[in-house]
Design a protein that fits this description.
Length: 248
């Protein structure tokens, strides 16, 4: 069994290496209990060495933000909040719509909720497409292109060409961060270009973002304040410079 100081060192290195980690991952890595890891993460957060969030931790290391965080590391972080955002988003899913669903852990939760709706859904996410296969009323179209193995989604020039064939009624978009200064951002250029094109192809877009991502900034902006974009978040909307916000 590791001593506490050893655990703290391992936790910090793991979070900085991957960009984020769940409590479950860290407990398995250190062979410690979830409660012990929770206390360790709280201590590192107090020392301003990482950012504690519900279910895990994010890195404060600028180098780690240069790359997308692995899907598994994000999936259980702020899970309750993601389900609430997805539940609100699901209210806008109506029969006979052509819908785009972006990749991401929150949009994946939305895919789990869509059932008994006669809709056609286009997605660039392997996880979303896999989730939708059990929904008999949903017609699912998976965009082709370059597969990102760490986030299980498709981007690149072929994906952009595929996307241009559709005129969506609504779209549900993920993001890595939002700030009043830079707007909605992501750390990877191909991801940014794809999201930007997806929003252009939607009559109405909903960006799903939990409060841990507010005031986070990454290299590439894909959207700013726009009358056709609505942010669904659990952050206080009075502090955000956006025209359309739904606070849950």
């Amino acid at each position: 069994m590791m001593l506490k100081e050893q655990r703290l060192d391992v936790i910090l290195k793991e979070v900085n290496s991957k960009g984020a980690a769940s409590l479950k991952e860290l407990a398995k890595l250190t062979q410690a209990s979830i409660s012990s890891i929770r206390e360790d993460v709280a201590e590192l957060d107090k020392q301003k060495l990482l950012k504690r969030v519900h279910g895990g931790a994010y890195s404060l290391n600028n180098n780690s933000s240069a790359n997308d965080v692995e899907y598994e590391s994000r999936s259980n972080i702020e899970l309750d909040a993601k389900i609430k955002l997805a539940t609100k988003a699901n209210e806008f899913v109506q029969d006979n719509l052509l819908i785009f669903i972006d990749s991401g852990t929150t949009t994946h939760q939305l895919a789990k909720l869509i059932n008994n709706k006669n809709v056609t859904i286009v997605t660039n996410s392997i996880n979303v497409a896999t989730e939708l296969k059990s929904h008999s009323n949903v017609t699912t179209i998976l965009i082709g292109g370059l597969l990102k193995s760490n986030t299980f989604n498709v981007v690149g020039s072929l994906a952009l060409d595929n996307l241009k064939n559709f005129n969506f009624d609504i779209g549900f978009i993920g993001a890595n961060g939002y700030s009043n200064n830079l707007g909605f951002t992501t750390p990877e250029i191909n991801e940014s270009l794809f999201k930007k094109e997806a929003i252009l192809k939607c009559k109405k877009s909903y960006i799903l973002l939990d409060k841990t991502k507010i005031n986070s900034e990454f290299k590439y902006t894909f959207a700013t304040n726009n009358k056709n974009i609505t942010l669904i978040t659990n952050y206080k909307k009075k502090d955000l410079n956006l025209e359309n916000i739904i606070e849950v």
